[in-house]
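Entry for heme C complex. Fields follow.
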Amino acid sequence: MSNTYATLLLFLFLFLFPLILFTAASFAADAEQGKELHETHCKACHVGMSGGGEGDLLYIRDDRRVSSLTKLENQVRRCETNLELKWFEEDIMDVVQFLNTHYYKFKPTP
Ligand code: HEC
């Protein structure tokens, strides 16, 4: 094997593969990550509003306001903007994913 070829392989292995993996991972919304963000930034205020408990009463009460995945996304953005958290798009989608998986359970809109 020529030296150049070996260097090229090494380059692929060390640099390109992690990059591809990282890119693929960042496209999928991550509910675990969302759970942590929610715990840190969102939960306390909702706990106060819903009279104690886990703060999730807000999401499962009969007259909850959010009624579709799009509206859930909008509401997460609204609360996030109000708090001036300056989240990345990715963070927003992670929290939407977390809330939908655990509470709202909307089907993705096509
Ligand atoms: C400072 C207080 C506060 C914080 C912090 C907060 N929220 Fe809210 N949240 C509210 C209020 C007020 C409402 C509106 C409740 C209503 O209209 O009945 C609400 C409602 C919601 C709802 C809709 C619940 C429903 O009725 O279906 C979602 C979803 C939500 N918040 C997500 C978030 C997320 C995500 C965060 C963190 C980025 C967050 N909130 C942080 C105050 C807060």
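NOTE: Residues 3-27 form the longest helix (25 residues).
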